[in-house]
Design goal:
Helix content: under 10%
Oligomer: single chain
Distance between the termini: 39 Å
Strand content: over 45%
Order of helices and strands: EEEEEEEEEEE
Radius of gyration: 14 Å
Shape: elongated
Number of helices: 0
Structural class: mainly beta
């Protein structure tokens, strides 16, 4: 498994911005796909955005045009830039890594971070 550590959460006013980071620690080969999920109180965990090792991205409809996912493959780090934040974006945000790539071979891995709280409130 891969150890993932998220950072960057906090309290922000509606309309504000935050940037989340998720770093995979340890000596690991490159990670295949990385994702951000979120879970609000009383709700199921939902996919926010994903990015492949090649840079292809996908987003939940609720965050399109406001959030941007990116990654630094050399650092095995994924980012989530969140702009125009709304109270309904309040949740614990989790990072997920799926698959490792070593010498062109995909190794099955499914790892989650511990989560970082994002609260959007005035």
């Amino acid at each position: 498994q891969v150890q993932l550590v998220e950072s960057g959460g906090g309290l922000v006013q509606p309309g504000g911005s935050l940037r989340l980071s998720c770093e995979a620690s340890g000596s690991i080969p490159s990670i295949d796909s990385m994702y951000w999920f979120r879970q609000a109180p009383g709700k199921e965990r939902e996919l926010v955005a994903g990015i492949t090792s090649g840079g292809s991205t996908n987003y939940a409809d609720s965050v399109k045009a406001r959030f941007t996912i990116s990654r630094d493959n050399a650092k095995n780090t994924v980012y989530l830039q969140m702009n125009s934040l709304k109270p309904e974006d309040t949740a614990v945000y989790y990072c997920r890594a799926l698959g490792l790539i070593r010498a062109g071979v995909r190794i099955p891995v499914d790892s989650w971070g511990q989560g970082t709280q994002v609260t959007v409130s005035s």
